[in-house]
Each structure stands twice: as structure tokens, then as C-alpha cells.
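User: Protein folding is very new to me. Would you mind checking the protein record under this note? It all follows right here:
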Amino acid sequence: MTQVIPPELQPYATETENWVKQVIMKYNICPFARREVERASIRYAVIDESRLQDVLQALIDECVYLDKNKEIETTLFILPRGFEGFYLYLDLVDIANDLLIEQGYEGEYQLASFHPDYCFEDELQDSAANYTNRAPYPTLHIIREASMELALSTYDEPETIPERNIAFAERKGTQFFVDLLANCKKAQ
């Protein structure tokens, strides 16, 4: 979805959109992404805040925006500064999930999380498997639960998606994904 992003913040949205198209969609990391890219129903919201309270307010504001704009399927809520540290980011994810429940959005929206240093529990930091959740910037993916339930109901064995992605990442290797992410930042 087209929106006005200040010129100084546009590179964050562009690089994230490149990542969606050149990694997530191209390699089928999310089998549901292509439809939304082709429909132009993904909103790229760059949040120029680093204080936790301001980010949380922006998150709720984005949910309200999605409530009012049903043609937008999903938002990538991009946080270019303030949450570069992965563990600080994970704290934000936990607090954000609690806030969605507290604000009455449980069952309406869910969050998926992506981070440049994403690391699954029990994985080495440089494991290729981590790249299934690595993005150019810390990003909360706000997903409409009803849409996700519908998409999953039409997909054979959706529980195998993470395993398939990890197997793909391990076949391709870490350097493959390092290069992909670097290319997302170059292609402007």
C-alpha cells in the first residue's frame, strides 16, 4: 500500500520491501507473501521512535489504522533504531504481544518477528536456519488472524513450513543469505 514516508526514512521501507520480494517471496519463505505483494496490500510503516512507550503507542495506532483500512492485509512495522540489540528487541516483542491482548486485539492481530540478528533458541548465531527470520531491520509483522487462518486452511500441511524453510536455509548456507540481505540494501 502506498503511503507517505518522509524521504529520510524511505530507504528503510525500500530495503524491507526488497527483502520481501527478493528473499521472502522469491524463495517462498512465506507461501502467502506473493499474493499480497501482487495485490499491493502490504503496508511498510517506518517507526522513527526508539523509546519503548512511543513504539508501543505507534503499534496500537497501526492496529487502529488496519481496523479502518481493510484493503491493507498486513503491516511490516519497521524499527530502524533503538532495537538493534536482539535481546532488547525480544523484550519489545513480549511487551507488544501483551499490549495487543490488553488493548482487545487478541484474536484480531498477531505478531511475527524479524531481526537482523535473529537467533533461534539452541541455534548457533551463524546458523543458516536463523535467516528464515532475519530481516534488514528489526520488524514486527502485524498479521490479521482471520486472514492467516483462512490461508492456512487452504495450504496442505502448514505445520511443515518452518521445517521446510530451515532445510532450505541449511542447503543454501549462511553466506547465501548474508549476500541476499546485503543485496536488499543495495537495490534502491
Observations:
- The first strand starts at residue 42 and ends at 46.
